[in-house]
Amino acid sequence: MHSDHTAGLTSVWKHPIYCSEVTGRILHHKLEVNKNLIRPLELNVGHKINLDERGVVTMTVTLIDANHCPGSVMFLFEGYFGTILYTGDFRYSPQIFQEPPLNHRKTIDVLYLDNTNCNPNQILPSRQQATEQIKNIISSHPMHDVVIGLYTIGKEALMVELALEFKTWIVVSPDRLELLKLLELEDVFTLEKGAGRIRVVQHSDVNYANMKHLNRIRPTIAVLPTSRPEMKWHKENNVYVIPYSDHSSYQELSEFVDILRPFSIEYLVKNELCEGYFGDYVNPLNKPLLKVNIPIMVHRFMNSSVWCEPYSSRKAAQHPTVRSFHHIPKGFVFENPEENTQNMEDFCKKEQHFCVNSHLRLTRMSPKRPKPFHKKKKECVKKGYSIIPKCNHHTMKWYMKAIY
Ligand SMILES: [Zn+2]
């Protein structure tokens, strides 16, 4: 769970959070999210979740290991809207197609894809190969201290492997140690400065000034395990940028999409080139896309306050973790929260319009609706309003904000 996955999550958060058990632990201990709101779900099995008060409309959600950072998962949603696979940040491994639920080639209607590394010219080694590169660098600097620049969480497996290889403690900060304890890893981390040759620092602390300062005291090299590009000052200051990435390489993405062959893809990082690269794998039979209509009961439920009450106060009958692999009927009644009768001027003036589950709503609207959203949006712009899209690829939401 990286910090960019949890923007806005604090002790005052009021809505239920479905997540892996590890993420649940981190959410509570690090961000002090109310325990009653955390709904940890077992991985690789379907969990039925009620989408209305009586449980007439349900969906099944299955969590799949995203192979990204501790606790990270993909979400597979199956329901009246079809089948949606939301990868979040992930590193592809062929293993994913050898275990449930993706071993039985599911038909994916919409794939939300982490395309962070969508560049055919960027060759990324596997994490194991990158680990070997890092080991070689450290081995060839036997008299140097080593600092490794990391984000708050992630790459713990690399740390453990380096500790075992070089038979050294890994020196970390108190905050990081607290987090590492939640992950129940091997006991190779210490707070004691000087106790080990390798020290973990924040990624941003590996900078020009700090490297100059460290090397004045003792010969020091820094390793940045990241797919981000190397800069000129890195080379000149003993900083080694190694493409150890927790995101899929372009080649891995191609293989993943080629096997899945989804009907449509939503790219989580805006990159028009990607659409061209993977276009051949999308909807190969040119089937018409599903028209998604939100059942009225679901609408009512989502607009009520029931679903955001703490879990402990809800009825046992609404337990979200009932397993279900039953066939889920498809068929929809789409309704737009913005009534068509609404005055156009009021529509544009409204401070924040509905959140848009991007592609789904924009392209699968009922033909009965006289004024689809994007047309309304254009009209607002014509009237002199500006529309600000705020796309947060981790929350699947796209807020359209019209400012007067
Ligand atoms: Zn991440």
TrEMBL record:
Protein family (similarity comment): Belongs to the DNA repair metallo-beta-lactamase (DRMBL) family.
UniProt keyword list: Chromosome, DNA damage, DNA repair, Exonuclease, Hydrolase, Nuclease, Nucleus, Telomere
Species the sequence originates in: Pleurodeles waltl
Protein name: 5' exonuclease Apollo
Alphabetical list of InterPro entries matching this protein: DRMBL (IPR011084), RibonucZ/Hydroxyglut_hydro (IPR036866)
GO CC terms in record: chromosome, telomeric region; nucleus
Chief subcellular location: nucleus
Reactions it catalyzes: a beta-lactam + H2O = a substituted beta-amino acid
Record Pfam families: DRMBL (PF07522)
Subcellular location: Chromosome, Telomere; Nucleus
